[in-house]
Structure formats: C-alpha cells, structure tokens
Design brief:
Chain lengths: 255, 255
DNA sequence: ACAAAAGTGTTTTTTATACACCCATGC
DNA sequence: GCATGGGTGTATAAAAAACACTTTTGT
C-alpha cells in the first residue's frame, strides 16, 4: 500500500542482539478484530457491526468485536469465535484483512519494558443482513452502524473499518462475494440493490448490469417467478457454482 | 498507525471464572518473513530471494529471509531490518502480504516449549535486480531463485512465495510499482521487458503497450536517446509523479 | 545494404454507456 | 387505465487486440 523510499533502518544494537537474541525478542498476545459488514438493501446503505466495550481499556467506547487468540486456536478460528459470540448467521464470507502490530501507542509497551506486546490481526466479514440475529447481552451493547455514522472508535478501529470498506468494494467488483451473502435464489434486482448500496448509485444502470451479469453465464434462471409488490414478477436466479469454477482464476469484473 | 486490539489487556473478571481464560491465551513470538522479488530482464524471469537456514529448526533448508520481532520494534521495521541484513539496494517497494498464524506451523511449538506459538507476518518486496548487492556471509547461503526452480522451503514458505507472486502480478497491472523498481529514466522497452517477465509473453504486444502507457500521460519523454546495441536508439522516459497524483485513487490498468 | 530495434498508424473486434421501449402485474 | 417494477434491444462511443508499416541506428 505504501511505497517506501530510503530504508537505511539498520539497528546499531543489532550486533549486541545477536549475542543474546532470545532475551530481546518481544512477547506477544495476539488479538483478532473483525470488521463485519452487511448491506441494508431496504435503506440502501452499508452497515458495520460495533460493540461497546465494557472493560478497560477504552471502557464505554464503541469498537470492533475482537478477542485474544487462545492456545491451540488458529487466527481464523478466533475470528469465527468472536463472530459466533456476537451474531448468529447461516451464511458468511470471511477473510483476513490486515495485521496491525507496532508498539508505541501504549506507554506500557515502551522499548525497554518487559511488558508483552499486543498485535491485532483484523478480519473482514460480510453477512446477509436480514438473516443476522444479534446476540445481545445485558452487559454489552451491540449494534449495526451505517458507515457514514460510525462514531469515534476505540484504538484505531476507525482505520480498520475504512480499510475493510475499501476491501468490500473491491471484492464486489472482482469476485462473486455477493452470492455468499444472498439467499440461494434471488432476483436480479435484489442483486442490483446490493451492488448499488455498496458502490453508489452511479456505478452502472440496471439494464446494463443485467446484460453484463447474464452474459457471464454464471447465473441460472430457476424459472420461478416472484412478485415483490406491484409490477411485473421477477425471475429467481441461482448462482451456478459449476459454471463459475473455470472462470475462478481469471480476472473478472462484475460491474 | 498501529491499532491495538479491541480485546482487553487485563481482565479482572476472567480470573474468577471456572475456566480461567487468561491462562488459556496463547503466547506468541512474532516473526516477519519477506518474499523479496526481483526481475531479471535479461533472462526474462522473476526471482525470489532465498536463504539457507543456519539454525534449528529446519537447519540446512532454504527459506525466506525472516526474523523474530524484537522489543520496541514495529513489524515493518523488522521487515526492513532483515532486508538490510541480506541485501543492499537503493530503491525498493515493500508492503504487508499476509499473516500466517495457525498452531503447528512451526516445529518450535513443541509441548515442552510451554505452548509458545510462532506467528509469521509476511511482507512483499520488490527490488531492482541489477542494483541489488547480496550480503553474503561465510556462514550463510543466500541466492536468487527463479520462480520455477524454487525448492521445497522450510515451514509454509512455499505458500508465501505463491501468495507473493500473485500479489506481484496484481500490483503490476493495477499500480505503478514498476517505476519504483526501474532506474529514474528508462526506455519503454525496458518497461515492457519487466512486464513481460512477470505477466508472460502474451499479455500485450509491444506497440499496444506503448500507446496505452503513453496515453495515460504519466510518462514524460526526456528527449535523451540511448542506444542499446543495434537498432534505432530509444527515448529515455521518466515517471511523472505529478501527473500521476490525480489518478492515484482511481482504478487504473497498466496492461 | 540489411538486420535490428524503435516508433507510428490503421483496421477489426469487443466492451462500455446511454437510453428507448415493450411486458406483466396490482390497484 | 395506468403506475410500477421487470426485461429486451439498439445506437453510439470507447477500449482492446491484431498487425502492417515507417524510422533510425549498427555492422
């Protein structure tokens, strides 16, 4: 992400360190923070899941749901665990986002201290908004926030949200994530709404979106018609995993 | 720049729980492994920098240059430090790649080591091959390997190389990394060779590549001609950072 | 002169964009 | 009937891909 110019950062103490390297190594606790997104199609907006911290540090502040990694637990397992603690959902997409791991924000992590370091591996998740059930406890607030109304979060979680949203837009354009988060059958308009909510109103007009997606040949018409209020009933489509398979390594654009 | 986790760092309620979560947290050593790529334009191939391990575990096996993170050292600093220990180079591009952190990925995680986990934050780097000076010590082998001849590496490093190469191709297509790794002035053919080596012979023909890049308006002709052996002398171009700036957030394709 | 590399232009095909218009339903 | 959302087609512009051709050098 950031190009780097001069790099003469060689540590003068490196020589000394090589004598007793073990003692100078940092000890880490590793945390996982999830940027969980969903799309509220009705309101045409993207939401992110926040929890209110009920412990120090940053008690009372909103933050991303996170946890420390336990013995024998993989990073991804930890991510799934926090997720399961906060929401119940059938379908979801999850992938690693970025790792934030520097010292220096916390005075207790001063270079010569013996305190442990805390590293955060962030994960990006996308869930189907309508199907999510929040696991609200009395002691903890948990809520969906529209992206444009996210408050100041604890730590640097605002940055993680930003980063995650960028990833969301890229994923929508270049991968079939949308189908991970749609019901098994859906109308093309529902798909279009999803894209519109994330990418903005002007990303493409509906009829061009239709033809482009249908031409890809990865959607199959179930033939079943469904009526959403007034107007002509729409066809229900299904994502065709078999047809997608051979395309999966090739770059593709879902605009 | 580095957020800490959203998890708590000292949990008083945890201790009175029947299963004490604090004790069940994993303790980590965090390592940084660099996938350092360069392009040998003359031989038309992509190279990755490997070192032969001098210490346990996996002694004698080839691996990516890596190190454990020290107290007070950021992840990126650690990445720059290993880099500086292995090579000397003026220009480079470096960014975080992925974090591998499953239990059991490092043999040092044996039971008798009291449950310490080894986590690897990998970094992707691209350097100018001609300008690199390898820091060869008597005790350590260090070498450039063509991608198609990379041996079985220690740990999960083959996977990291794969992942890094994928990143390299994407970066070349959608960002101006190439210019980070080219001399300040270069011929369009040198640029083309770089792209060809990474993306393969058939990614575009030379004349189309030329017109496309020139039409972007981010290269300025210095007017200086230079003769590479036989044939008509080529113009030296320079990457125009000012002209690129307004385009930098927009998606762009360098194919 | 001629091979080799640089550089220009033209033609064809494909893709993107805008938008006009028909279709099927609820009220 | 007519408003509403679903769906098809067409006309134009832009971009990608293929390739023929000219220019300038070394030998």
């Amino acid at each position: 992400m950031e190009p780097c110019g001069g790099w003469d950062k060689s540590d003068p103490t490196a020589l000394k360190a090589s004598v007793t390297p073990r003692d100078r190594l940092a000890d880490f606790k590793v945390g996982v923070d999830n940027a969980i997104f969903s799309v509220d199609v009705a309101e045409n907006r993207v939401l992110v899941l926040l929890v209110q911290r009920r412990r120090e540090p940053a008690i009372g502040q909103w933050s991303l749901p996170g946890t420390l990694v336990r013995r024998g637990e993989s990073l991804e397992d930890a991510a799934y665990r926090v997720l399961a603690e906060k929401i119940r959902v059938q379908q979801l997409y999850l992938e690693q986002l970025y790792t934030f791991g520097g010292p220096g924000r916390d005075p207790r992590e001063a270079p010569e201290s013996f305190g442990v370091r805390y590293l955060s591996v962030s994960y990006f998740a996308l869930v189907q908004h309508e199907a999510v059930q929040l696991m609200v406890e009395e002691t903890e607030d948990i809520a969906w926030y529209p992206l444009d109304r996210v408050p100041k979060l604890a730590f640097d979680h605002n940055e993680i949200v930003e980063y995650g949203y960028r990833r969301l837009r890229n994923k929508l354009e270049y991968s079939p994530v949308a189908f991970e988060v749609l019901p098994e059958t859906f109308t093309l308009n529902e798909l279009y709404q999803l894209y519109t909510a994330v990418l903005g109103e002007n990303f493409s007009d509906y009829s061009n979106f239709r033809s482009k997606l249908l031409k890809l040949g990865i959607l199959s018409d179930t033939g079943i018609k469904v009526s959403r209020g007034a107007g002509r009933p729409a066809s229900l489509y299904r994502f065709d995993y078999e047809a997608f398979e051979p395309l999966q390594d090739k770059p593709m654009v879902f605009i």
